[in-house]
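User:
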Amino acid sequence: MDEMLEVKFFKDGISDFINLLKSNDIPYEEVSHFPPGTVLAAGETLEIIKALAGLSLAPSIAAVVVQWLKNKASRKVILQTKDKLIVHLEGYSEKEIEALIPNAENIAIIQTKPD
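Assistant: Predicted structure:
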């Protein structure tokens, strides 16, 4: 579904990211591609909507990504576009990330040190 963006979490940092989504009124839902009880190497997966009532949420999503990255030095965000281009978003501005969101297929949220 093109209007949804899959967000995959690795290790820690999910609660901070979800709190930022909530404070920016970005709808999301937790998804599981596996039966309950399946042990996975990665953390949780969310889907967030990229547009609501015809309005792009890219500016809000970009703001969440930038703020989440700024909160801890041990964080990384990797975006994959529909064209399979991989972009590491550390150091990108909100405007630069906003431009990438419409063509984004998924993002990986990584925090290498515990909360």
